[in-house]
Amino acid sequence: MRAVVQRVLEASVTINGEKVSQIGPGLLVLLGVGKGDTEADVPWMVEKLATLRIFEDAAGKMNLSLEDTHKQLIVVSQFTLYGDARKGRRPSFIDAMEPAAAKALYERVCEQLRARGLTVGTGVFAADMKVALINDGPVTILLESPGPSGGAARPSA
Could you give the CA distance from residue 81 to residue 38 in angstroms, rounded to a whole number? Predict the structure, then answer.
């Protein structure tokens, strides 16, 4: 699994002119599921998202997590995180998991985040979404689960 994690002052997801999710300070997570990802990747991603220390403490250090701050997050499915544009001009998405299985793993991530007591907004899987955000910092972190697809589309050194 791959995630682009953005610390935000606010974020929202709109579909067909209707706002389906909106948060104040917290995280906007763009989550992609790749071929080879399994249920075993879910707890790793959930733990990382819930405990990643990217919010500032009283001393101004990035030392607090979502769980520490009780902030919210929006998780948006995004298969294009598995786009490989190293060759040609049009990205290939062959490393993205097929939609039905990807949706199930995406939903498991959201369920497990909620089970930890976090407030989780979502988009709608496979919908044409308009995502708005005010990035805070900006702070943007890339996460990749250590499972089989973790690194599948990475260029070699």
Answer: 17
For 4-62, the pLDDT digits (tens) are: 999 999 999 999 999 999 999 999 999 999 999 999 999 999 999 999 999 999 999 99
Q: Could you give the CA distance from residue 127 to residue 12 in angstroms, rounded to a whole number? A: 14
User: What string of DSSP letters covers 112-143?
Assistant: HHHHTT--EEE--TTS--EEEEEEEEEEEEEE
Identify whether the C-beta of residue 149 lies closer than 8 Å to the C-beta of residue 38. no
Residues 6+ apart with CB under 8 A from 111: none
The pTM of the full predicted model, rounded to 2 decimals, is: 0.90
Q: Which of 115, 34, 37, 29 is nearest to 77 (CA)?
A: 29
Catalytic residue IDs: 78-80
